[in-house]
Amino acid sequence: MLGGAVLLLAAAAALALTALQDNIVFFYSPSDIAEKGVAPGKRFRVGGLVEEHSVKRLDGGTVIQFVITDTRKAVPVSYRGVLPDLFREGQGVVAEGALRADGTFVATSVLAKHDERYMPPEVVQALKKAGKWQEGSSQ
């Protein structure tokens, strides 16, 4: 009976982990994407700074194209929807979505930092790795 209970518990744990694995979304910087060769269609997050002079609005403003950079590499992003109020060039963002075969990241959501001091931890790590982060600064 004890063996059966352990087997049932192991099966339940395996099912739960399998279900959660489909919902895990990994974070990458633009440099990570270039180095690791992320496959098109795989869902993940990309974070960095919105490159200066890269924001373009198409289709009457419903499609926004911009570039996310970690100062070493850059990824073009296409997003259909309403951007957060604090979205700006030069600000930290995290976008969730997938790469197309042409290398453009198609975002389903875009998050921007919420005040002048906060930046998502993943973006801070990517900027530190690129040597562009200064302690006590917002960028």
Q: Would you kindly provide a written description of the structure presented here, covering whatever features stand out?
A:
The chain has 139 residues and is of the alpha+beta class. It has a single domain (25-129), classed as Nucleic acid-binding proteins (OB fold (Dihydrolipoamide Acetyltransferase, E2P)). It is 26% helix and 32% strand. The protein contains three helices and seven strands, in the order H-E-H-E-E-E-E-E-E-H. The chain has helices at residues 2-21, 30-36, 121-129; strands at residues 26-28, 43-50, 56-58, 63-69, 74-80, 92-99, 105-112. Strands 2-4-5-7-6 form a five-stranded mixed barrel. It starts with a helix and ends in a 10-residue tail after the last helix. The mean pLDDT is 82.
Keywords:
32% strand; 5-stranded mixed beta barrel; 3 helices; 7 strands; 139 residues; alpha+beta; OB fold (Dihydrolipoamide Acetyltransferase, E2P)
Helix-strand blueprint:
Layout: H1 2-21, E1 26-28, H2 30-36, E2 43-50, E3 56-58, E4 63-69, E5 74-80, E6 92-99, E7 105-112, H3 121-129
Parallel strand pairs: 1-2, 5-7
Antiparallel strand pairs: 2-4, 2-6, 3-4, 4-5, 6-7
